[in-house]
Automatic annotation (TrEMBL):
UniProt-listed Gene3D superfamilies: alpha/beta hydrolase
Recorded family membership: Belongs to the 'GDXG' lipolytic enzyme family.
Name of protein: Alpha/beta-hydrolase
InterPro entries listed in its UniProt record: AB_hydrolase_3, AB_hydrolase_fold, GDXG_lipolytic_enzyme, Lipase_GDXG_put_SER_AS
Entry superkingdom: Eukaryota
Provenance organism: Mycena venus
């Protein structure tokens, strides 16, 4: 079903009410508003946004720091920052300190990597799908993430080379999408990041493949029922064809297309580290992504 103006308005209102609640406790949580960047939405992503009735919208994010009272201030010379995108299958989760997976992960980065004194966690729009009214399908979250990157470079003042884009699970694919988008579009004054950190990225969004890890790790990976329900996948697609699940934007680790389809795609990527668990159902798709990036 094609998106309607009513659906679009409901989608924006849904995301805004969530952010307003975050903003009310900004002094305690490090929340800041991030303005939309519609002028940066071009090419294939603009096409997908039009198909799904998605537009740029005001978003937000959370600053974490080990230095008291040093949140969104201008960076010191050579200062590096982690731009983190949380997981949650595109339909849940948060960059807020109240969301324990994000808080624990970011605390680990700050406690164990002395080169990082600050982390900025984007609060991107979450998708909603059937049986509920469709809201924020692809590429809504990516539009927010692009705006967040612009915020770090143009408003806060970080050099792109000093930004490490990080993401876990679905956030890992958002991190990959942002990096790919910056590499393809090559915006003047908005160079790609200095490094990419992918923590158990959802490299195959459909995850319906008969790979070894999908068969062997059903009992060791708690997300088996999530894959079977496919709620997140349907919410992400919106009005797009399911065929998009077998293409590089949503599934760079899918076995459903040949390596030749991504030949040269990663040549402009920064240094990348991928962390994968041996007992994960999606382990093989992450290995495929690794091999394609190294090819």
């Amino acid at each position: 079903m094609a998106p309607t103006a009513a659906m679009e308005s409901r989608s924006v209102a849904f995301g805004r009410s969530r952010l307003i609640k975050r903003a009310l406790s900004a002094s305690k949580t490090g929340f800041v508003w991030v303005e939309p960047a519609p002028h940066l939405i071009v090419g294939e992503i603009q096409h997908f946004a039009e198909l799904n009735g998605v537009k740029s919208a005001r978003a937000g994010g959370f600053w974490y720091t080990r230095i008291p009272d040093d949140l969104a201030g201008k960076p010191s010379p050579g200062e590096k920052v982690v731009y983190h995108l949380h997981g949650g299958g595109f339909v849940m989760g948060s960059g807020s300190p109240s969301f324990s997976p994000s808080a624990i992960m970011i605390k680990g980065l700050l406690d164990n990597v002395p080169q990082f004194s600050r982390v900025f966690a984007m609060e991107y729009r979450l998708a909603v799908g059937p049986p509920f009214p469709t809201m924020n399908p692809f590429p809504a979250a990516l539009l927010d993430v692009i705006a967040g990157y612009r915020y770090l470079v143009e408003e806060v003042g970080f050099e792109p080379a000093n930004i490490i884009i990080s993401g876990d699970s679905a956030g890992g694919i958002l991190a990959y999408q942002l990096t790919r988008y910056l590499a393809i579009e090559d915006f003047v004054g908005l160079d790609n990041a200095g490094a990419l950190l992918l923590l158990s990225p959802s490299a195959d969004s459909a995850l319906r493949r008969n790979t070894d890890s999908m068969r062997e790790n059903t009992r060791s990976d708690y997300v088996a029922t999530w894959f079977e329900a496919a709620y997140g996948v349907n919410a992400l697609l919106g009005s797009l064809s399911p065929d998009e699940l077998d293409k590089p934007w949503l599934s760079p680790g899918s076995i459903m297309f040949e390596d030749a389809a991504v030949k040269g795609m990663f040549k402009s990527f920064p240094r990348t580290f991928i962390l994968a668990g041996e007992a994960e159902m999606s382990r093989d798709s992450m290995r495929i992504l690794r091999d394609r990036m190294g090819g």
